[in-house]
């Protein structure tokens, strides 16, 4: 199997990637948005559970943070979570979907405890990078599940070698998914640590 990873950095491949995985992307976006809506609707029911999660996140933040170490913390935390979601594809994406639903519920619940302006200012600047990364982490999980199913099917049919040879594209898509997530989360962490607090202080 010849795997030319450098192909994924071309503009043509990037365009084909989004076209090829359009269904996975749309499903992931739908799950996140639907979960956020449910977070708003059932905010009273999930209140204690979500507040405990948010408090644990706050408590884990570095004390007296600088922009650098807060950005580093946010990036490490987010990339770890996204990798776990992607690797959930090895378990047929069940846990990955649940993780995205949880993200959506937290976003929806947060909307109910702040003003609309605070929500927009607190979420939008870094969210335009972080949320697509979250969506793509589920896309990555779906791709891993697809690869796993293809290989398992080929194994039972005793055609594993042939299937591995045909898996170049999906493997490259998985690698590209991770690279895009990495870039998006670096940008999101810098904005969330350096820009979002300033904007929130202006509307609080």
Describe this structure in words.
With 204 residues, this protein is mainly α. It has helices at 11-20, 22-41, 43-60, 67-87, 94-113, 116-156, 160-165, 168-194, 196-203. α2 (22-41) packs across α5 (94-113). The protein starts with 10 loop residues before the first helix and ends with a helix.
| Helix run count | 9
Helix content: over 70%
Distance between the termini: 57 Å
Total E-strand runs:
0
Poorly predicted sequence stretches spanning 5 or more consecutive residues: none
Average pLDDT across residues?
Answer: 94
Major beta-sheet overview: none
Shape: globular
* N-to-C series of helices and strands: HHHHHHHHH
Gyration radius (Cα, Å) is 19 Å
Please state the structural category. Answer: mainly alpha
Strand content: under 5%
Features:
single chain, 204 residues, mainly alpha
Reconstruct the topology from this structure.
Elements: H1 11-20, H2 22-41, H3 43-60, H4 67-87, H5 94-113, H6 116-156, H7 160-165, H8 168-194, H9 196-203
Helix pairs in contact: 2-5, 2-6, 3-5, 4-5, 4-6, 4-8, 5-6, 6-8, 6-9
């Amino acid at each position: 199997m010849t795997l030319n990873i450098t192909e994924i950095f071309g503009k043509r491949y990037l365009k084909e990637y989004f076209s090829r995985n359009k269904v996975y992307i749309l499903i992931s976006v739908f799950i996140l948005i639907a979960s956020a809506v449910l977070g708003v609707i059932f905010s009273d029911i999930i209140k204690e559970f979500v507040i405990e999660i948010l408090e644990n996140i706050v408590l884990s933040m570095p004390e007296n943070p600088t922009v650098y170490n807060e950005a580093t913390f946010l990036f490490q935390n987010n990339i770890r979570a996204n990798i776990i979601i992607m690797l959930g594809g090895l378990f047929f994406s069940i846990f990955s979907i649940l993780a995205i639903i949880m993200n959506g519920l937290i976003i929806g619940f947060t909307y109910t405890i702040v003003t609309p302006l605070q929500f927009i200012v607190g979420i939008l600047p870094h969210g335009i990078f972080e949320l697509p990364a979250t969506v793509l982490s589920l896309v990555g999980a779906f791709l891993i599940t697809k690869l796993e199913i293809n290989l398992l099917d080929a194994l039972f049919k005793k055609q594993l070698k042939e299937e591995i040879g045909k898996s170049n594209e999906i493997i490259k898509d998985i690698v590209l998914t991770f690279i895009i997530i990495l870039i998006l989360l670096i940008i999101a962490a810098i904005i969330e640590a350096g820009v979002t607090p300033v904007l929130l202080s202006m509307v609080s």
